[in-house]
Specification:
The chain has helices spanning 17-27, 79-96, 113-124, 139-146, 160-172, and strands at residues 6-10, 32-42, 45-53, 58-63, 71-72, 75-77, 99-105, 129-133, 151-154. It is an alpha/beta fold. It has a domain at 6-36 and 84-172: 3-Layer(aba) Sandwich (Rossmann fold). Strands 5-6-4-3-2-7-8-1-9 form a nine-stranded mixed beta sheet, sandwiched between helices. Strand 5 (71-72) and strand 6 form a beta hairpin. Helix 1 (17-27) crosses helix 5 and helix 2 (79-96) runs parallel beside helix 3.
Length: 173
């Protein structure tokens, strides 16, 4: 079995990386495991982020009301819930040879050492990987983006729609 491509989508917040990732996963006719994140809103105001597993569970990743020593801006991050849900989901995908989907390799997720190990395991695996990654410099993500076995794909408002087909083609090959 050939080694699947390792594709990292990179772009500024709000450019449409998560939507692009979801569209690609829908268009591919293959098993996928992993997660995506979404804003949680109350009365029009963002109050946190949900963790949406491709297996169907939806949990809270971060929230203004979470008391945690792990914080990104005004949001407390529930690292334990993240580790106990996202990491086993990815590990199950690696075991099954599925497409691994990670949205995102970002500040909140990187509080988890276990997650970092699972990401590295996914990059070493034969499974194809489609992930969004922090655009800003960070020691861990900078190393990932510099790897010779990954393709970093910049996402812009102008490119996001046409990237769907290109990503589907790369993941089918």
């Amino acid at each position: 079995m050939a080694i699947g491509p390792k594709l990292l989508l990179c772009g500024p917040p709000g450019v449409g990386k998560t939507t692009l990732l979801q569209r690609v996963v829908r268009e591919l006719d293959r098993p996928a495991k992993g997660f995506y994140t979404q804003e949680l809103r109350e009365r029009g105001t963002r109050v946190g982020f949900s963790l949406n597993l491709l297996s169907g569970r939806v949990l809270t990743l971060s929230h203004v009301n979470i008391k945690s020593r792990h914080r990104v801006g005004k949001y407390g991050v529930d690292v334990e819930t993240f580790e106990n849900a996202a990491c086993p989901e990815i590990e199950a995908g690696l075991e099954a040879g599925a497409l691994i989907v990670i949205d995102e390799i970002g500040k909140m997720e990187l509080f988890s050492e276990r997650f970092r190990r699972v990401v590295l395991q996914a990059l070493r695996s034969r499974c194809p990987l489609l992930a969004t990654i922090l655009q800003k410099s960070h020691p861990f993500t900078d190393v990932l983006k510099a790897r010779l076995d990954v393709e970093v794909m910049p996402v812009t408002v102008a490119s996001r729609d046409r990237l769907v087909g290109a990503l589907v083609d790369k993941l089918k090959s």
